[in-house]
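Recall that a protein's primary structure is simply its ordered list of amino acids. Everything else, from secondary elements to tertiary packing, is in principle encoded there. The following example makes that idea concrete.
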Amino acid sequence: MKRLGAALAVAAVALAAAACGNGGDGGGGGGDAASGEPVKLRFLSLAWQKESIEANKQIVADWNTANPKIQVEYVQGSWDNVNDQLVTSFEAGDPPDVIHDDSPALSSFASRGFLLDLTGKVPAELKSDIPQAAWDTVTFSDGKSGQGVYGVPFLQESQVLIANKKLLDGAGVRVPTPDSPWTWDEFADVSKKLTAKGAYGVAWPMKSPVNKVLNLALNFGGTFFDTQNGKTTVKVGPQEREVLQRIHDQLYTDKSADPSALGMGTADPLPGFFAGKYAIVPAGVYLRQQVAEQAPSGFDWVTLPPLRGQTSQQGAVSQTLSVAADSKHPDEALKFIAYFLNGPNQAKLAKGDWLLPTSTSAAKDPALTTEENGWDVATASAKDLVVAPFLKVNGFDEWKSKVATPAMQEYFADKISLDELAKRLVEEGNKVLERYSR
């Protein structure tokens, strides 16, 4: 990695210089307040939806108007290659001052000293507006003997159910509410009632099954990982098997879920959903945007709250803003972050991305509590989000890609048993994790 960083350093510096634009001096921002020059910060944003990009740019413009001595340049990045680009810029010593990323990426960057520890530095008003469960998603080992806070969490996602309201009413089933959600047993019964010739009660898109299964497993207390004396191992016991078994039963015992949907991505079932082939699609809250934009005229759909097992808890990761350790202006960067992520601005960002704000004040915004497009149900689901256990596991990405994804896909395709799945997840998974604990 050191050689890779060195080889790409020239490209990184060139890219940074281009990003700085009108005479910026690079090196994590420029300017000198003492000489009368404004402090210049670079803000790498990964906003990608039209509404979200507009919201990001408007907040930056408002800041620049109100703060002539601290000017922020908006730099557009992409989720597709951001971490590779960041490694290059970190190694070259010229990262953006303010960095948009997600919490799983922070652990590695923090342990390598690339990010500023924000412990004790976040303004009190912002710190208290965000629940501790969200702060837990950005708290990682500093690579030595302690822990630090390496980002400010601001957007999260929950898993909800998107349903055809006409079919629910026609079957006479109870429409759940945030205060009285469906249990997994009730969901199974409803899915059977909604299954008829040529139509299924539910479509489970499982092209990428791991995060969905691990997050939902918390409904039954399933964590999939156990850490003792600093060593993490994989575990697949009764609690972890619950969601796996229940989805499998819908596919092959109840036959209320369509096996042909298994290879689909999250949005792929929507044409079938609009055509009445599927009554319910479990999905992240962001899918509501595509439903709202693509549904045929007159199509009546509803957002239903997360399912309840022993609890309705789900694992969560966060989108985050961090400060580069090499920034020449960390105090100014934090002032900008505190403004960018205040309650009103978080509400704008959440609405633009169709996600959930971590800010408790933003969650009360009328735009996020309206019944239109299921915002009231989506926003209420944030109360059940807790830190995803896998977020703290070194080697999780490799376990996910090389072991868990193919094994779960085979299990849901009914090619291996649950016992065989558990054996592979544990035995092959522990071999992967062992390399990361040395």
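The longest helix spans residues 2-20. The radius of gyration is 23 Å.
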